[in-house]
């Protein structure tokens, strides 16, 4: 049995931020992670940061801003950048359209490790990589310990702590410890949300997940992979919410649901630094144009596109055999899309197949070109003291309720976020996958009440498992929001240990709440409120 002050299970962005907050506030922390890499959706899941338009100036914690600057500094220190790129104050290393700081996942790992290094030196922070939770011990309304299994050796280790944070991608501790939680889609009758299900709630109706992969492109060469075992199935797969076969250049516009066409390349020089409104440029993570001419022959892009959103089944609420089947099917779907692009995809020049597409598993830490882990958009969610509803942040929902313009103001704010309510096609019900839900909202706050379980006293959520709904999770799930949630949870655990308070007491006592918020803003550099101009801006 190992003992610590705070145990953080899950080493994604939320888990890393939580561990940093605990260490900075003077407490010992053990951080565990299933994969070899820390950083979650930014690294092992290979998703460049999805961020809001004000991210360079505000709307993030001080430590998240440092993470972004660490990434830029890594490129300035280590790559043969052009003078323009090296001196650009807001360098976007990959030049991708999805984020102002697209980058290779390995660089994200380095940036995270740089932030953790001072606390590893004296073992204030202990990191257990390739460890997954297998059971939890409870004592009434408390979780006393978690048993972890090494994926490398099979050895088990039990860690006890006064506070335990669930920063796993799927809210695994909520299930293992019997913490009251929700999965899937709530009903409109339950939440009153305009976009909730009209009929009964469906716990298995969950957002699709995606197994991303990276490629570069070398015309005239042939890097065609072996035909995937399930290629015939995926080649003909046509969800009922789609205008044609999923493996094609045609998909649907998330906001209008109208069919649209977007090819791999819109310009012959797209894979060599040319900016174009095509798929290649959207999540490009390495940009030839930023480097000394002739040094590199191809960009690298990250494939996390609608063609590989896995809609055929969920990862929670099912048995382990079914979960593993869905995971393997998702891998087959992604490999099938790569094979289709290499062999059958219509080319810009009128030919067929881009055989020069080369899988780049080396930048993802894998041999097959796929990310280490799937990109998970929806988790189990705690039944919280307070649940964020569409009516708190959604533009149309607030108008329908006659509520003031702008997002709800939460007195117990512990941070900020901003992103459209963005739900990818879901696993749906008897009629098959459900369509996109992509609707306008306002920049929002993160209420402390959404981080406190209704019953359990010492377990806190630190990822996508806070008190949101199927709908509002769609805007609370992105990189800077997850980081903020995790950092707030870690700070709360350390603050409670330092003061002898409980999380529930901190939230529900105005004096204690103000004291905690001063720690967040004064010590850790949080921003708890938007300006009125931004808070009332439709996204």
List the topology elements.
Layout lengths: L1 E2 L2 E4 L3 H12 L4 E5 L28 H17 L4 H5 L17 H17 L3 E5 L1 E9 L2 E9 L5 E5 L2 E4 L5 H5 L4 E2 L5 H4 L17 E2 L2 E5 L13 H6 L13 E3 L6 E3 L17 H4 L1 E3 L13 E4 L5 E2 L9 H24 L13 E3 L21 E2 L7 H4 L1 H6 L12 E5 L3 E3 L2 E4 L2 E3 L2 E3 L4 E4 L11 E3 L11 H4 L2 H21 L3 H6 L1 H14 L8 H4 L4
Parallel strand pairs: 1-7, 2-3, 2-8, 3-4, 8-25
Antiparallel strand pairs: 5-6, 6-7, 9-18, 10-16, 11-15, 11-17, 12-13, 14-15, 19-24, 20-23, 21-22
Describe the structure in your own words.
By secondary structure, the chain is α+β, with helices and mostly antiparallel strands. Helix content is 28%, strand content 18%. The protein is built from 16 helices and 25 strands. The strands form 9 sheets. A 5-stranded parallel β-sheet has the order 4-3-2-8-25. It has a 4-stranded mixed β-sheet with strand order 1-7-6-5. A 4-stranded antiparallel β-sheet has the order 14-15-11-17. The longest helix is centred in the middle third of the chain and has 24 residues, at 320-343. The protein is globular, with a radius of gyration of 22 Å. 53% of the residues are buried.
């Amino acid at each position: 049995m190992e003992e610590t002050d705070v145990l953080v299970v899950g080493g994604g962005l939320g888990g890393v931020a939580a561990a940093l907050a605990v260490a900075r506030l003077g407490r010992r922390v053990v951080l565990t992670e299933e994969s070899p890499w820390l950083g979650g959706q930014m690294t092992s899941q290979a998703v460049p940061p999805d961020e809001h338009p004000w991210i360079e100036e505000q709307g993030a914690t001080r430590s998240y801003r440092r993470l972004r600057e660490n990434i830029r500094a890594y490129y300035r220190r280590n790559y043969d950048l052009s003078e323009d790129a090296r001196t650009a104050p807001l360098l976007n290393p990959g030049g991708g359209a999805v984020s102002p700081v697209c980058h290779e996942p390995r660089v994200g790992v380095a940036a995270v490790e740089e932030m953790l290094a001072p606390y590893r030196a004296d073992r204030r922070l202990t990191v257990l990589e390739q460890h997954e939770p297998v059971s939890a011990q409870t004592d009434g309304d408390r979780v006393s310990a978690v048993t972890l299994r090494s994926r490398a050796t099979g050895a088990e280790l039990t860690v006890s702590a006064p506070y335990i944070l669930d920063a796993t991608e799927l809210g695994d501790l909520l299930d293992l410890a019997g913490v009251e939680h929700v999965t899937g889609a709530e009903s409109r009758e339950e939440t009153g949300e305009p976009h909730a299900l009209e009929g009964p709630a469906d716990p298995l109706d969950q957002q699709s997940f995606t197994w991303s992969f990276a490629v570069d492109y070398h015309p005239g060469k042939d890097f065609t992979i072996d035909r995937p075992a399930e290629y015939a199935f995926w080649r003909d797969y046509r969800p009922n919410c789609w205008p044609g076969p999923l493996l094609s250049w045609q998909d649907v516009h998330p906001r209008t649901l109208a069919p649209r066409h977007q090819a791999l390349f819109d310009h012959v020089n797209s894979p060599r630094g040319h900016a174009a409104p095509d798929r290649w440029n959207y999540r490009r993570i390495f940009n030839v144009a930023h480097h000394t001419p002739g040094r590199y022959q191809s960009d690298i892009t990250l494939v996390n596109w609608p063609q590989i959103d896995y809609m055929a089944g969920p990862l929670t609420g099912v048995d382990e055999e079914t979960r593993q089947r869905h995971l393997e099917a998702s891998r087959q779907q992604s490999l099938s899309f790569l094979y289709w692009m290499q062999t059958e995809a219509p080319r810009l020049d009128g030919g067929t197949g881009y055989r020069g597409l080369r899988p780049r598993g080396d930048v993802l830490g894998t041999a097959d070109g796929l990310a280490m882990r799937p990109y998970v958009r929806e988790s189990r969610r705690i039944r919280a003291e307070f649940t964020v509803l569409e009516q708190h942040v959604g533009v149309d929902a607030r108008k329908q309720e006659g509520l003031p313009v702008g997002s709800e103001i939460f007195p117990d704010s512990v941070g900020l976020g901003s992103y459209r309510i963005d739900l990818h096609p879901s696993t749906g019900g008897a009629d098959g996958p459900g369509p996109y839900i992509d609707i306008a909202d306002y920049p929002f706050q993160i209420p402390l009440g959404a981080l406190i379980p209704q019953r359990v006293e010492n377990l806190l959520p630190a990822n996508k498992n806070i008190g949101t709904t199927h709908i509002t999770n769609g805007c609370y799930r992105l990189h800077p929001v997850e980081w903020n949630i995790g950092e707030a949870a870690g700070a709360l655990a350390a603050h409670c240990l330092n003061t002898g308070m409980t999380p529930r007491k901190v939230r529900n006592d105005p004096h204690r709440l103000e004291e905690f918020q001063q720690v967040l803003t004064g010590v850790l550099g949080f921003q708890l409120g938007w300006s009125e101009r931004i808070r009332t801006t439709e996204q």
